[in-house]
Fold these 4 entries.
Entry 1:
Amino acid sequence: MEIPTSEKAFEQLIFENQAMLIKVCNIFCKTQTDKDDLFQEITINLWKGLSSFKGNSKLSTWIYRVSLNTAISKAGRKKKRLVQYQDKLPESAAIGSNDDSIDEEQIRILYKGIERLKPVEKALILLYLEEHSYSEIADIIGISEKNAGVKLHRIKRKLEKILQPYITLKHAES
């Protein structure tokens, strides 16, 4: 991918990577206003930092890195955030009237669990869920491949503990 040198080329770059940017915003923000703000902040940081891109990695890797660093930084500035978590699944999820609702509910529960992770853990699990290799994750985050593997293993265990009440409740209802 070529480094954009014009405003129009930059807009095209943002358009081509929009889905990834939206996923980052969805993982790190709860309200649409916060998602929009983060998207704008990421876009600004990408524009400002474009001249510093050296080409040592793929442009998409650099975009991911800037996006995640922006989100992590913004999350660190919002320490006052109060988030309420549900202790139990809603009735409709426990009943599970069809497979589609179960899949949607499982995804919603997974995102609730991810909300409880630290910002860097969110970044790592997002990349993992996007099916990036450990090598790609390490490159994007700026850690060794082995460290990425160890951190992801710990995050998966942490998520299992967070999600255990939901899993136990679901099995009891089956």
Entry 2:
Amino acid sequence: MNRRTLLPLLAAPFLPRLALAQSGWPARPIRIIVPFAPGSFTDASARLVGQELTEQLGQQVVVENRGGAGGTLGATAAARSAPDGLTLLLTDNSLAMSVGLYPALPYDPLVDLVQVSRIADSPSILLVKPSLGARTVAEVVAMARARPGELSFGSGGQGSSAHLAMELLLNVTGTRMLHVPYRGVAAAIAEVIGGRVDMAIASLASGVAHVRQGTLLGLGVSGERRAAALPEVPTFIEAGVPRYDMSYWWGIAAPKGTPTEIVARLNAEIATALRKPRLVEAFAAAGATPVHSTPEQMQAHLAREVPLWKDVITRANVRPE
């Protein structure tokens, strides 16, 4: 091998870093769009990750809440943003659910967004107002069967992840309830606490504090093992509903066309942030587990989720507002 052949090979590993240096990325503040109202774990996780990235990159990372239409308004804004690595989307299961909900969706999450990394997972939890009188999942199911359509559940909006999570539970238990949509899951949980609706399903990250405070009862969590954050709450398997296994996930994406070297740098910086003790502790306190993935793994995960939620949406005949 001569010198002319050897030099490009030696330089190859440094080309992405050189390209970033030449482009000056990030030359301006980075915006993370959260497609939901403040108060949810999606919002909190964006601020936690944003704080770490601000310190690591030496550039301000700001969070912008753009709620509405089950997360699609914010996702649309992100997909239509310039692919310069300065606009990111931090979202959850709703990204996969939107495909089945909106036939005329203005973006395709599998095509118009570049997946950067998964950042967290959390079990779902059934949250019930104490005054309902139910102390187990079995008792809730028995009540729903005895009074079809009378019990109510709140969600973060028609077609939101909290809505479809409950529709999946109703489907596997053969029950019916009244759906009451709100502007964000935090508002729905507040209504359960206030006693105006009977229950809600949310991520453990969104409900753990209320169960610890005793303002809500946690009757079941998804997954094969009990959640470390609430070890007293049985799994749905233990509660007699083994077919219910809906878990929440969160991830970061960027507009299609974002340079691969920027995606790779973001992925590496996110991995570093997710290892920070203060972030790990904050996630754990909220009932979430940091999860890093490659862009390819996140893309494959999203591709698996899309048909699963299409089926739930079709069976429940869910129509967006």
Entry 3:
Amino acid sequence: MELGSQSRWRGLLHPLNLAGLLTWCAVAFTLPYGDAPSQPWRWGCALVFLAAFLLATALPRASWQRATLLLVEAAAALALVRLAHPSGVAPALLVMLAAQVAASWPPRSAVVAVAALNLGMYLVLRGVNGHAGVVVLIFAGFQAFAMLTTHYARGAEQARDRLAQVNADLLATRALLADSSRDAERLRLSRELHDVAGHKLTALRLQLRALAGEAGAPPGLALCERLSAELLGDLRAVVQSLRDSDGLDIATALHALAAPLPRPRLHLLLDDNVQLHDTALAEAVLRCVQEALTNSARHGEAQVLHVALRQHQGLLLLDMHDDGQLRGELHEGNGLTGMRERVAEHGGRLQLQRNASGALHIQAEFAA
């Protein structure tokens, strides 16, 4: 089984889903009570509901496939309410459905959908139960509780994800700034050594050479002059090594950006010839990858984001795609527009397209 499928099916172990399974088991326990001829139909409706519920937990919340399965659950639940014993707990399936609707749709749409469900339950029970209105009101209270619980649980998850994104942003920025500060300090030290110590050593060597050339100079002066020349050469080598740098550690910053996020996982391919010395360019790359991570998690339900960074003919090439599937038409929102603006600021261009699997493929070129 692929990683994405495994992760989606692990969603079945979410506490709210486990509560739904327990609710279904409680309803199934009451199915033998009632008319014997309709018992196979009752089990059929219950199993259809369960199958649709299990499939829905493995699909993205806002997908049309999940919405279709919710409609199947609604039809199966209402049919079971009609076939089950009037004093049974079959309407509890609609409580499960209300929680799913609250997790999948905006609050207003969810309230309208659940109100339609309750109207359907009233119409189904009106001919077989003299207290259909009371039953609907009782289970409507349970539905409201389930919807509020799901709404706040979903809000807590979204707040956690936003906090993780902010924390990742801070970690990546800190890593990039720390690397930039180290490079700046190395450059400052190299300049100080070259301008101060190098200048004085050069003057000392010239003085020693002049003294060694005079008549009657001690023989040790020539050795001192030679040692000063070697020391000056060593100092120049140290200055050059301080100036030589492999650039900013963009890989560490990118991994720090993606590490706190639950998904997608970052798969980074960084060519050995990539060297970033410009902090502004490195930050632009960082923000582009950050936006790609956000899009992959929010719109594509992706599990892995593949990022490749290489340099070719004076250009820095950034290639990003994931294993998700983009829903709807490709539309540039504020995030992608900001990415395009960042690329343009560095004399580059941005290309957006769908790949063969339906995921968003982003290619950016920067003037390195």
Entry 4:
Amino acid sequence: MPLTDVAPLEATIAIDAPPARVWSLVSDLTNMRRWSPQNRRTIVLGGETRNGAKFVNINRRGLLVWPTQGMVVEYEAPRRIAFRIKENWTIWSYTLEPTGTGGTRLVSRREAPQGISDLSVGLTKTVLGGVDTFTAELQAGLEETLAKIKADAERP
């Protein structure tokens, strides 16, 4: 049975850059390798990020390297992008909201509306330190990723 009692993970950051600038960064999935502590490379099949686009991630944690397959399930420029990871069924998203000062509020979220696959839960328990440990690592990774996006977006 898949793990179905999965609380969403979420992190939010205020960025002193307009939404168009932030969108240009987060909507290019190949940028994820610069920000995510696990992602080493993203290859968008066909080269264009859009609704329905498929991509492959190469992830790394220590000596462990693994691929995942994703598909963009929401692409609402310049407000929201979300993608689903095939192997574990999770949906990752970035939502942009303009602030009253010309900046951007960026929200990153991981949800599992259909639960997390047996395959992913089994690997998490046996290879990634357990569900609680890995979930805490993912939450810290969300926050680290947003801090790096903020630094890139605010860079002149």
